User: Fold these one by one.
Assistant:
Number 1:
Amino acid sequence: MVTRRHIEVATGLSATLLGVVTAYGSLENGTGWTDFGPSAGYFPFRIGIILTVLGLVIAVKYGLTGRRRAPANLEAQAAGGAVALHEPTGLDERFLEDGALGRIASVFVPTAISAALIPWLGVYLSGALFLVFSMMTLGKVGVVKATVISVATMAVFFVTFEFWFQVPLAKGVVMPLLGIY
């Protein structure tokens, strides 16, 4: 059973790994001070060290928190109840309840597919397909209503980014074929 404690320790170790990779990668660019100011790796190296230290602190803290044995509760023991092995911290409860992984996947998988389609369909078309699919499956909205809302939303995004901000987003292969570029 995966508990919250496992996830906290894994998160701390992941932050540690990210910090180590960042600090090591910045060594190529120099971590000192030059005649013109800091080298390119000066700040990334320090941030990598901070991430490494904080990640280790998180991993150790949550790995050891609540691990000491609590004094036996005589009343609970006399009543035939369970005696706590450690103080209740909430860290040893199940991380995911039944069905939670399926709900997470129902959002993550379409998002990942939509992101993977951006090089071919562009941001606007893949976003519209994602919205239609999400509204129909998660929101139980009809096809016509989902399509109208998705097209309107992507049209607003298109006008906002392409004309107002003048920041062109990925059009993919399909939109230039349709004459939209």
Note: Residues 100-177 form one domain.
Number 2:
Amino acid sequence: MATEFTGTGDPARSMALLWRTGGDDGSRPGPRSALDVDGIVAAAVRLADAEGLAALSMRRVAADLGVAAMTLYTHVPGKGELVDLMLDSALGELYPDEAVVTSGAWRTRLRTLARANWDFFLRHPWALHLSTGRPPLGPGIMRKYELELRAVDGLGLSEIQMDLLVTLVNGFVRGTVGGVQEKADAERATGITEDQWWAATEPYVAQVFDAQRYPTAARVGPVAGEELGAYDSDRSFEFGLDRLLDGIGVLILDASR
């Protein structure tokens, strides 16, 4: 699936809509519409969750809402601004209980942070296909950033280290959960499940794991395959997260000296 970008719309319009300072409050002359920005964004998120960003268009969202496409444009100027609103709205779901990232040991806080972001991308896989080089600086993303910084506050780290640490954990989650999405995309594109693919390649396993040509792979591969089966995304996530937290522990120890 092709990558799309946040920040492709009019920045001023996006910011006004993100912070609801754009006058979309039903104060326009004429009959008051039952449709508002929140309803449009919610419909767009439902569509993207079900069919991906490729299916997203102003016309399609309007059809799902049972209104003319031009009706949407009176509230949201275009797809670029809509994508910004969608991501910020979805990010607002994170950490409904804010205390989970501000209480307990630092390792527990960061594990909770990582798992929450992992679950977020599983609920909204379309967000993985959004490049946020120009992040939509709305209340959802700013609340996320604030709470994640609090998770690493008070550990003796500098402000720069705190920011880099939050970025590191989020980058790890995004990269790891990408494997889940790639597998789902492959199954959708080929019509062949993971199990079917491995079953079809099984007759060639002896040839592939040739102990003469690939002695290390021939020793490790079958053992890992028997233990892990096909790619186990959740186990890879937990293993990688533990190693990442081990390294963060060294950083925190050094900062305390």
Note: The chain has a mean pLDDT of 91.
